[in-house]
Structures are given as structure tokens and as C-alpha cells.
């Protein structure tokens, strides 16, 4: 009886509305946590594993030496590499393909790489317009690397003290 | 040897006096790390990796050079042994570059494996590492001598097995370098084994460089088909292409070694001239077509041209498999033709089998004397030559009767330089000498011969030998009196109780003889087949430019308007395109299953290592389908094992001694002895790029003695039949010895 009476009073005095408005008015003055994506972005860890890239040395020479350790370690068999001896006698890739549909973004390739050539960047907002688009080749990977080199090296720098 | 008992890691083990500790440990499956020790090489004890603790001995001892003694208590894994091994490992890694990611040895490297167990994570060495510049050592082996750990396995291999000391250690201490003494590259025909013995990536395969990683490849047990030995190999393929061939241990055949020809010939498989689609020639124009049409075209052509069954000729190269030989001859015989042959490069052909040997491979290494007639065994049959060399190391003497003094890797006692046209009379002289010395009756044909001094020496050695062998080589094939010579050698062998090693025809010729791939009855052989009556030919892997003794007349016959030629071939080149009317692309070596029969008569089957490229099909399948289309019964096989089992039932026709009519030759005339270099032996090897660029592969010289050169007006570097001349005194008089990889032009 007492319970019913309490509910009746609450209902007629717009109790729930007041509770709601209280939250609203509190959040009205609180600091907001949403960001305006894509204009604004949330911060991410230097270890974030996004789209892959192949890096170069500062002198422009590609880092990858076709050791195929990433291919061997890849649990999803997403990496395909072909190697050759370049004219200057060094070991280089002729083909370096990553199938992003297969990739599970575990980062093992990055861990296995002895020369820090293959890295996973902080890029995660990408899309393919065709099925074949999921396979990114060496040229594309190097382009991604060139475009994002400063971000990649910054992330590597930040992470280095924890390794 | 007396038996002793020792204790290794707590196990009581019986061994014989003098066994090294490491060999006992290996037998017992106890792992002792090592770099310089190799079971087939002498003990050097210079890497110090195999240090073990022996109870009562204050310092750790190398297991490879310490003989076991009765009651010894050995510990390979206790703290003292481990400490010593780890210390050695640290030293070995001081100068070793950490370039495993780009090293082709990575993944199969003994140093890498041992370092995983005995190496430390961090090096205490912080000074500059040593760098050793590379000297090129030829087209087959890539050197990265900075990686070398000075185990000297390659040096010992050269000195002890290859018989040519080409690599050596120079300098001292920190400055020690393993390098070739000469700059023109490795000459040995077994050089590829240095790659196998090298425990690190200092010596790696040059054609394989950076092609694939070791762990990616698919290894299949196979058998090499280039020579009579049938060396056991692994073919390693990556993405459907053979990338490398390495040796497989088999003590009774190839021990742990294989010849460079077996190791590097695979490159020919990926040559651009591979036949990938069936092709037919319509009105002189080549058209690509599908299998059904091509086979129908081939069968129609055979039916229309060989109106009588005996107008069909069937020829195969000596490198075909047992199954292919069997099906080819069965097809021909069911069709009604006896014109079957594989002996394409011989001037005289016997009617029965011609490859009888009375010795087997492992016995060759224990002979006390060898007479080599007409063979450069070192390049032609490297593994048989290796056995002869082992015999010479145990004190056997070797005499030779060749057109030229070849560069053997053992010392020969007496070299009787004999021009081909004089070989018959020379052997008659030897036989006479044998008869005179042993007081045997002399047969009529040699009664009026007076043995010369050198033939007396050869005869003396033959008689003195209790357990000798006469080796008949490939060079006899081109001799116009080859049958008479072989008969004569048999007489000499029986008069002196010696054994015969017949290595006149290489490849898989024992299989061909096993299934009677030779004409019987009125059948025509490879020489008599080129008459006007034979109108249709079925060729398997035959290159008319190289394979025939008289390639001109063969090519001329094939390209006649009314002769129809069906070529089952893995490759297309100008000569095939000119002579054939249909090309049926065939799987090559390692691409189809098959069987090889070796010198000992050992039957070795192998399965396909890779799929054949393009639309090409295994040879035995093509022949089977052709037989079906020709309405021949009894060739309905399901797989090649069925063919093999049936083929092995057949028994070969024993050689009826051919009473050869002896060709009388004016032996004062200069004769040309055309001998193909070893890497021109078959269609695959001829297309193997690295082999052709190696020292042995580039052999292309017409050797002539000064006197003979004067007689026929030749001087150094002239071209004789298209081959540059070299005037040397080591050539028989009245003979031009041509050793070449070019196609025959005469």
C-alpha cells in the first residue's frame, strides 16, 4: 500500500523526468568525451596495429631484404614474397603482397622483421572498392610507408623504451 | 679389432678399438655439436666444437680426434663439457656476421642450429668484425667468405674426394682465409658437394642464390638420371618449380656425394624453350592445337605413312625411364614394327645387349688395377671415377688407352696414347702380349702381331693383377670397329681373369636393355633405320642435332617430305621444329614418375617432384593414349607402377657375340674423334645455364698433336669443324680429339 502511494506521488510530480534532466544538465556542463570523427581522432597507442607499410632507409633504399621471416611467421598465410638478386648483388623482393582479407593484424610480421621493414601503421580507416583491392602489393606498401614515415618513426621511438 | 666397452652419458656402449668418440656417439644417437668433423672426410679437429669431458682427463677433449679406450667414461652434456662447448661457440661467433636473414644457408645452417643451443644472447666482443673479400670461384658456387668459420671441410673435400686441391687456407691467426689458389674457378666435376659439406653459408649454390628459403621448399626423394650410377637425390621445389637438387645418402651408390651434372642440371627444366602446348605442322606451318587434335594428327600421320607396319621407326634417348622404354617398344611391336633403338650415337650396333659388366659399383673401390679404355671417367661417370680413385688411394695402379691424356684426379701409371683407328691393333698387341706371357694358345687373328713395349707393360699389369677391372668407356661408341674392340677386350679379360666395367652407354640404358629396346629379328637399328623405306618415326626426347652419330643424315631423313615424324619432346628448338611434324610436349626429368636401372642392375623408382609445366604430360601417358588411338590392345594401364611391374618381367636378350666384320682403316690417315663434353649429354643439361658457364661446361676444343697439326695444316686457335684448335702433345698421333659442347657438324 505504502509502495503504491510512493509511486503515485513520484509519477505525478514528474520524478523520472527530473532524474533524466538531472543527468542531462550535469552532462551539459561536464567535459565531452566524443570526438568529431573523422575531423577529430581519439589518441591511439604507439603499438596500434593497422594497415601495413614497407619502410625505407633515410637514403631512400628499401629496407626489406626478402628474408621471408614475415611470410614464415604469418599465422594467416597472408604474405606472399618473391625474391631475386638485384643487379648490385643484394637480396631484394620482386613481389611483396599482403592479402588484407586474410590478415588478422596480429603484428607478428612486424615482430619477425630483422630490419624493421614491414610495420603496421596507425591507419585503420581504409576501404576497398573491389575484391582484388584487398591485396596490396609492394609498390602500394612502399607508398604507404613513404607517406607515413614520420608517424611510423615517431611511434617506433615512443615504443622503443618498453622493448 | 678388439672390442672395448665405454660409457657415454651413462650408457654402456660396445665399440671397437680406435673408433673415435664422435662416431660412437653418432651411432648411439647422442648429439655432439661439430663443424669440422664429417664422416666421409679425414679428422682435422680444428673447430673444437665437439669438446667432451672424459673422466680422469683434466681438460675437455675433442670427440672427433680422441679414440675411445676401454673403460672410458665420457660425458658430453655435463657442466664441464657444456662450458667448453659454449666457450668455443663464443669464439666462433666473434667474426661470423649476423646476416642470417639474407643468407641462403639460413634455416639449414649447422652454425645457426648449434648457436641456438650453445650460443649466448649477447656477444662480449665489441671490436670490429673481420671482413674477407670474395674471389669468384666459378658459375656454380657462390662464396661469402666472411661467413667462413675455417672448418676446412671444403679444403679436405678437394684434397681427399675431388682429388683436385683447389681451395686452401692462407695466412695465419686472425688473417686465415679459405680461398681458391687459382683465379679461373673450380675445375672439379664434384665441386657442388662443397656446398653440402660447408656447415655455414660461406659456400652456397649460385644458381639457387636468393631463389627461395630452405624451409619453404618441398623435398622429394628422387634419382638422378644423367649417368649409369643413378645417384640418390632430393629435389627441392618451390611453387611447382625445382629450385635445387641435393645429395641423399646411399653408401652403395653415391655415398654422400653427387656430381655437378646431377646437382645443377635442374636449371634446364625452367628453360624458355620448354614445349608447353601440342603443335602440329600443317602445310609447313606450325600451329598450336589441343591434345586431342594433335594426337589424332599424329596417329593419322603414322597410319598414312607407315602403310606397312615395318615402315615405322621408334627411337628414344638413353635418358627415358624404364616405363617409357617399355611402352614405346610394346607400342612398336604391337603395331608390327621391330625398328626400335636407343643407341643413337654409336657407329656399330650389336644385336643383343651390349652393356654387360662383371663388377658392381662398390667392388670397384677395392680393385688392385684398372685399365681404362676410351673414357674420361672423371667427367663422364664421376661417381664411378670416384670409386676408381678410392682404389688408387689404396694402392691400385691405373693404365689408360685413350686418344688423349686426360686430366684424371689420380695418378696413372702408363698412358698408351692410341688414335681411334689404331685401337683395335693396339688391343690385338696387348692380347698377344698376354698370351705370350701366360703361355696360352694364340688365336689366328693376332698371331702375326708383335707387341710393342708399352703394350707389354699394360699386359704385365693385367696379368699381375689379382682383382682388376677393365673399364670400357663412351669413346668406343664412335669407333668404327667398336664391336671388334669390345670382343677383343672380353678376350683379354678372360685371358687375364679380370672383370669388365662397361660404361659405354650412359643414362638409363640398362632399363632400355632390360625391356629389349633394341631391334630383334629383321628389325632395323638406329643406323639402318634411315633408309627410304622408313616413312614414319616416333621419337622420344631425341634432339636430332645432338643425339645421332650421323646427325646430318638423320636430320636430312626426318625433314624429307614423305617422312612423318612424331616428336615427344620436352623442348622445342630449331632442329625439332625442322624435323618433326607433330610436337607432343612431354614431362622432363623430375616431372613424372619413373624407374632407373643402374650399373649394378639396381632398380630405383622415383615419383614426380613437380607438375610438368604448361600442357605437357608424362611420356608414358602420351604413349598409352597413342596406343589406344592406334587400336592396339594390351596397353591399358592405370598408373606407372603397373607398367613398371610388367616391364620388370621382361628378360633381356643376352649378347650373342657379334662376329664383327673388321673395317680395314688406313691408320696413317688423320681421324677425327668427336666426343661430346659431359654437360652436352642430354637435353636438360644442355639448357642448364650455370653448368654451361662452368669450367667443365665450357669445354670446346679440338686437341691435336704438333706433328698431326703440321700434317693437316692446323695451328693454334684455328677452327676445325667449328671448334677452336689447341695444339698439345698429349694427343695421339694422327688423331684430332674434339671435346665439345657444340652440336656435331661432321
Map the helices and strands.
The complex is a heterodimer of chains A (163) and B (746).
Chain A: H1 2-12, H2 15-29, E1 52-54, H3 69-73, E2 79-85, E3 91-99, H4 108-112, E4 118-120, E5 135-136, H5 138-160
Antiparallel strand pairs in A: 1-4, 2-3, 3-5
Chain B: E1 3-8, E2 11-16, H1 21-28, E3 51-54, E4 61-62, E5 73-75, H2 79-92, H3 110-118, E6 141-143, H4 153-162, E7 167-170, E8 177-180, H5 193-197, E9 203-205, E10 218-223, E11 232-238, E12 241-247, H6 260-264, E13 279-282, E14 285-288, H7 291-305, E15 312-316, H8 322-335, E16 340-341, H9 361-364, E17 369-373, H10 377-380, H11 382-393, E18 397-402, E19 414-417, H12 420-438, H13 453-464, E20 468-472, H14 482-496, E21 499-502, H15 509-514, E22 536-540, H16 551-558, E23 564-569, H17 574-579, E24 582-585, E25 594-597, E26 603-606, H18 619-629, H19 640-649, E27 671-676, H20 683-686, H21 689-693, E28 701-704, H22 706-712, E29 719-720, E30 723-727, E31 735-740
Parallel strand pairs in B: 1-5, 15-16, 15-22, 17-18, 17-20, 18-19, 20-21, 22-23, 23-24, 27-31, 28-30
Antiparallel strand pairs in B: 1-2, 3-4, 3-5, 6-9, 7-8, 10-11, 11-12, 13-14, 13-24, 25-26, 28-31, 29-30
Helix pairs in contact in B: 8-18, 8-19, 12-13, 12-14
Class by alpha and beta content of chain A: alpha+beta
Q: Count interface residues per chain for the largest interface.
A: A-B, 14 and 11 residues
Number of DSSP helical runs of chain B: 22
Order of helices and strands of chain A: HHEHEEHEEH
User: Can you summarize the main beta sheet of chain A?
Assistant: 3 strands, antiparallel
Proportion of β residues of chain A?
Answer: 5-15%
| Oligomeric state as shown | heterodimer
Poorly predicted runs of chain B are none
Helical percent range of chain A? 25-40%
Radius of gyration of chain A: 26 Å
| Number of helical stretches of at least 4 residues of chain A | 5
Per DSSP E runs of 2 or more residues, the count of β-strands of chain A stands at 5
Low-confidence stretches of chain A: none
Side-by-side strand order of the widest sheet of chain A: 2-3-5
The N- and C-terminal alpha carbons of chain B lie at a distance of: 60 Å
